[in-house]
Amino acid sequence: MLEPDRAGGGGRVVGLAADGTHRFSKRPVERLRLLEGLGVEGDAHAGRTVQHLSRVRRDPTQPNLRQVHLIHTELFKELESLGFHVKHGDLGENVATGGVDLLALPRGTRLRLGAEAVVEITGLRNPCAQIDRFRSGLMHAVLDRDAAGGLVRKAGVMAVVLRGGEVAAGDPIAVELPAEPHQKLEPV
């Protein structure tokens, strides 16, 4: 059973974006349809195998662990405080969330987005140089160091679609943690 996120009192879908063309930013939309095993309907990154262009060049047969990109809107607020104006879709995310600490979730966490759709988190988005081409200095702003000096990637998480369905802004997000032991998120 999927439970509302207890830490934040339940999360919400704040914004949605998709784009059928491979470019850094995505266009904001009112609704998305998630397709089981594929990703976001009409999005350039939808598919059973990798769609990210640099990964396709390396090995086009790899499974697509990056079907849906989710970012917590709390990052947008943090970036705003550093002088970067970033809105939904600008960083290439499909789903902007509020009230769920995405980066603290373990690999394999399932998120119900709205009434039907379920995605499973596969790992962290690994920010690349395109972020600095979008806004100079932004790459540094989405990377940090933890107390032990380890690199912290804050540019969101990637997921695969386990159950399709329509998602709209304002929809609730329910969180189901995987069985322990939990595996920390790594870049995918």
Automatic annotation (TrEMBL):
Which PROSITE patterns has this protein been placed in?
MOSC (PS51340)
Q: Which GO terms describe its molecular function?
A: catalytic activity; molybdenum ion binding; pyridoxal phosphate binding
Which positions fall inside the MOSC domain?
A: 27-176
Task: Please provide an example of a Pfam family that matches this protein in its UniProt record.
Answer: MOSC
Name-wise, this protein is MOSC domain-containing protein
| Species this chain originates from | Plantimonas leprariae
